[in-house]
């Protein structure tokens, strides 16, 4: 098992990409901290995985709140004793064309999708530095690399995540900490489920592989970067998008 003996925090792990990652990481031997704002759903997901024999626990967190993040990290350390992997997967959307986008919705997305990545990484860093090793995986998006209509806030946050990833990779690489990002394309999640079928059909026509990705496609990318398979990968943004932006 590729993550045997490792401890991983996955934010936004109560559903979607984060849940898929929690399942795959647990199967690969990791002790998994499901960190999510939704306490009821998070507890249920953690129990489901625990019932299958995996070492999993739920930790409630608001990634946009520093006190909440620091408490979550402390509780993970108290429970599992260390942190080897952080997957900054939590994210929200508040889409609107620029003319109609409110400052409130712009800031909400920045707070969760960008500031949340900073806060979680900042909180786990002392532990990783002390042990001289760690893997930090940040979730960007093809929208952050190429832009997307109606996503000023989301694209801005996800572009900034790429910049932070490269900066941290340069700062922390010599400390034994690899930092990388994953840029998903259009994946079958609750977010895309809300998109009209006609729009999805148009999107599929622009994807060379001809279909949307599955959550496990992203989870497997996280796994690669978290495992020894990706031990010499640092500062990269791995696109998992079916070739949509070639």
At the fourth level of CATH, the homologous superfamily is NAD(P)-binding Rossmann-like Domain
Terminal CA distance reads 34 Å
* Neighbour order of strands in the largest sheet: 3-2-1-4-5-6-7
Order of helices and strands: EHEHEHEHEHHEHHHE
> Which fold name is given in CATH as the topology?
Rossmann fold
User: Based on CA inertia axes, which overall geometry fits?
Assistant: globular
Task: Give a summary of the structure in a few sentences.
With 246 residues, the protein is α/β, with parallel strands linked by helices.
Q: Can you put this structure into words, describing what you see?
A:
Helix 3 packs parallel to helix 4 and helix 4 (103-131) runs parallel beside helix 6 (152-172). This protein has helices at 16-27, 39-51, 66-80, 103-131, 142-146, 152-172, 190-193, 197-206, 215-226; strands at residues 7-11, 31-36, 56-60, 85-88, 134-139, 177-184, 237-240. The two termini are 34 Å apart. A seven-stranded parallel beta sheet has the order 3-2-1-4-5-6-7, with helices on both faces. The model has no long low-confidence stretch (mean pLDDT 96). It is built from nine helices and seven strands; from the N terminus they run βαβαβαβαβααβαααβ. It has one domain (7-237): NAD(P)-binding Rossmann-like Domain (Rossmann fold, 3-Layer(aba) Sandwich), CATH 3.40.50.720. The protein has 246 residues and is α/β, with parallel strands linked by helices. 49% of the residues lie in helices and 15% in strands. The longest helix is centred in the middle third of the chain and has 29 residues, at 103-131.
């Amino acid at each position: 098992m590729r993550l045997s003996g490792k401890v991983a925090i996955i934010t936004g792990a109560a559903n979607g990409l984060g849940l898929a990652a929690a399942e795959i990481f647990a199967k690969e031997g990791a002790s998994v901290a499901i960190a999510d704002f939704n306490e009821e759903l998070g507890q249920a997901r953690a129990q489901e995985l625990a019932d299958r024999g995996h070492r999993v626990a739920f930790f409630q967190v608001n990634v946009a709140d520093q006190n909440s993040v620091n408490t979550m990290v402390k509780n993970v350390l108290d429970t599992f004793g260390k942190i080897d992997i952080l997957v900054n997967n939590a994210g929200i959307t508040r889409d609107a064309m620029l003319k109609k986008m409110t400052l409130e919705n712009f800031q909400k997305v920045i707070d969760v999708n960008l500031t949340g990545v900073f806060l979680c990484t900042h909180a786990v860093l002392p532990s990783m530095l002390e042990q001289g090793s760690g893997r930090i995986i940040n979730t960007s998006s093809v929208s952050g690399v190429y832009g997307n209509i109606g996503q000023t806030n989301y694209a801005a946050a996800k572009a900034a995540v790429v910049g932070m990833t490269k900066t941290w990779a340069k700062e922390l690489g010599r400390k034994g900490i690899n930092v990388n990002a994953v840029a998903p394309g259009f994946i079958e999640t609750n977010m895309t489920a809300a998109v009209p079928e006609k729009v999805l059909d148009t999107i599929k026509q622009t994807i060379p592989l001809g279909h949307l990705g599955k959550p496990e496609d992203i989870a497997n990318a996280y796994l690669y970067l978290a495992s020894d398979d990706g031990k010499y990968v640092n500062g990269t943004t791995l696109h998992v998008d079916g070739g949509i932006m070639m």
